[in-house]
Amino acid sequence: MCHQTVCLIARHFEELGLPTLILGSALDILEAGQPPRAKFLNYPLGFESGRFADKVNQLDVVRDALRGFETIKKPSIVQMEFEWPEGWEMIKSREEGILDLRSPRNEIPQYQSEDDRLAAEEDES
Amino acid sequence: MSHPHSKYIEKTKQDYAKLGYEPYQWFRAEHVPAFVQLQKPLSESKLGLVSTAGTYVKGQKAFFTKDDTSIRRIKSSTPVDKIRFAHIMQNYLVEARKDPCTVFPLEALRILDDEGVIGELAPEFLSCMGGIYSRSRVRNELIPRLEKAVSDQRLDLLLLVPL
Fold first, then answer.
1. Are the Cβ atoms of B29 and A103 closer than 8 angstroms?
2. Quick check: A55 and B107 in contact, CB under 8 A?
3. pLDDT number for residue B20
4. φ/ψ (deg, to 5) at A57
5. Fewer CB within 10 A of the terminal residue: chain A, N end or C end?
């Protein structure tokens, strides 16, 4: 769903005259949404800007993605050359059964921790 | 050997069928997008970031899961250990909650700024909870909020990173 949302946002800002680039990992959703510029990173969702705790890979991915601003000359989605080295199946196991493992939809802020909730309420008061 | 790319649209369709739901109507662009040529190189440009991973900073109000169309402004100088996430697809955030830079490239962008690859970073990055099922709410509520925040910063380029 996020990939659809960024396609809508990117198309809008490009119409306003601001060049955009998406760094994403759901190729089929990007192809449907036709953003102006996208770099497709064939990693599982949740690693769109690089592998876990791998600062070298994260920097390489973002550096390569940003090149797309200058190298993409017409609307296109360019596949990046990075490979997910191992554990794809392990990561994908979270998608087995139902992919749309969404949380219940409600209007309650979903704090990452109780400590965060207290910090936010303190800032509000 | 390359791993075949996952087919999320087809998988969602199958999942919805199992649950007895009609297929979700994904956005399928009917027109080629606008395309703006760069006015100056990246090394002279001011770059902004939009994250749709439900990114927030400790002390800010977290996102909710039912079509939350609010946005958060996150200083590009924010310490990484203050970055948090609240998103309807929480199962994709297990690692990001330990290393936020897997979906929110704060450190990489700061390094590339220091190296001079990027001219300048926007003082504030922007985030939202991109799991918004209603496209009209994206267009009528979320995008105007982002537009206001982007226009405040006079950006030359905008990077978008979904979850």
1. no
2. yes
3. 80
4. -60, -40
5. C
